[in-house]
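Handout, section B. The chain below has 357 residues.
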Amino acid sequence: MTTTVLAAGDRFVLPRLLSDAVRARADADIGVRELELPWPHVPFGPVAEVQEASGTEEELIAALSGVRVCVTQMAPLTERVLAACPDLELFCVSRGGPVNANLDAATRHGVAVCFAPGRNAAATAEHTLGLILAAARHIPDLHTDLREGRWRGDFYDYDNCGVGIEGTAVGLVGYGAIGRRVAAALSALGARILVHDPYVTEDALPETATKVTLDDLLAHARIVSLHARLTPETRGIIGTDEIAAMRPGGVLVNCARGGLVDYDAVRRALESGHLHAAAFDVYAEEPVPPDSRLLKAPNVVLTPHVAGASRQVAHKAADLVAAEVHRFLDGRPLAHCANPAVLDTDGVLRGRKGRGE
């Protein structure tokens, strides 16, 4: 029996990347149908009850007719879509989390939802390192000044000099896949790494890193970079009091989640000079409102939530979900299922025991 797969890509994880990855791994009889969603040319947003989705329920329902497997980055999996698409069994999201899928509804309909953890860890770590260097050494401002005809030799004045990495204490709040990569890169540049992560044990850290409390990290680190997940416990983890506890002349960087930081407190600290610089790729509100005072703050480097944007990420995302499709077709356990209640004790979708049965 031919299995029909919908490759619902967009302008980042292209439909052809998803199709090619699925076909490259499949040794079963499959047919691949493609749908292109408008993200990022059209911003993602809520679609019915799910968040951060692209496209409409209507176009996805039409495209899913007769489809058992969907691989996508942004397509909305809603109660309405699930009710209208009874053939669907597997929905693979090529992102670090399936925020575009209604997991409760998928579980009720017996649809397994998979995701792609770690797909952009390397790219985000690289971007973080770039922002740390750019903010600490004022690279964007110096670039702009030179293009406008100003030769800023005064940055050799001791009071204006940037912050170097070698010998500097860098604090990482969160030590997952991204934090580990950032730590390795900064250690190679001679930084001393301080880590605050309640889920990491001291013996899991390299010799170049030390586990500390958040208070100790803020008191001793010259550069603080955030890599924590956004949870009720971490929301607003860096606010007015925490910034005040940082060393004068410190640098704050966030490529994790906007909800970790009080950006008004950051702006005030930049304007007062308490913070030497800051750099952000994520924000409390996205896109950043054009009247946001953060956009006018001194010594701040801003990028529009693109830390995970590299061509390698798009290919890796497609490969990760294609691997899940291959496991599904073989009747093997799924590796990254977000709603395991639909699986049997072996990790296989209930009722799915291999393509020959």
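Note. Residues 4 and 31 are 5 Å apart (CA to CA). Compare this with the example in section A.
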